[in-house]
Amino acid sequence: MTETSHPDIAGRPQPAPTKPSLRKTAYHHGNLRAALIEGGLALLETSGAASLSMRQLARHIAVSQAAPYHHFPDKNALLAALAAEGFRQRGRILRAASLKHPTLEWRIRSLVSGYVRFAQASPELFRLMYGPLIQNKNAYPELAEAATEAFDALAALMRDMITDFGIRHIDPLLATVSLLSLSHGLAHLIVDDRGSPTLASTVEDDRAVVEHAAKMFVSGFNPRAAADPEPGRP
Question: Which CATH architecture has domain 21-72?
């Protein structure tokens, strides 16, 4: 009897059982879509969205070349699903980052820092979410829903801060858009314009930039600072 066989009940050698392949496991357990998303996110960071292909993804998770098409009719649909997952990830990170810090500045700082860390950890995903590579984004309800939910989550955090710190003179929607603009702008600069001599180039400097930006943002919540004086008045 060889190492690749075993006896049956009558003593006859039988082929040794083979381990189920990832292809069969992924497909028959019903988790193929999740495996495609997970594999796609990994390849996205190593290959970039432009180079990512359905065939490459199939090889990466050990399924047939036709398998990805059971869930995504083409690469554009796959990229839209990856971007949707990016918005969900960002929402989870921001919700966790802002949990009940004792001061307004600390909460704002944690939100901006969480946004920047997300972009730094997944730069290709960050670029995909906001870049032009996905065609006709409105054709993908999952992407639109995920983006809307991510914004709504940030808006809810802003409303909580306005209530908790008694800054009711601030418009919640405008404050949310302003904070999102600040966070996204910093993340974009840090991720894509690292070579600029005017931009911080170390983790410590990035932290200092985030802290300064948060401090300036919070200063705008001061009713006296936010007032628009009449022309000619100090």
Answer: Orthogonal Bundle (1.10)
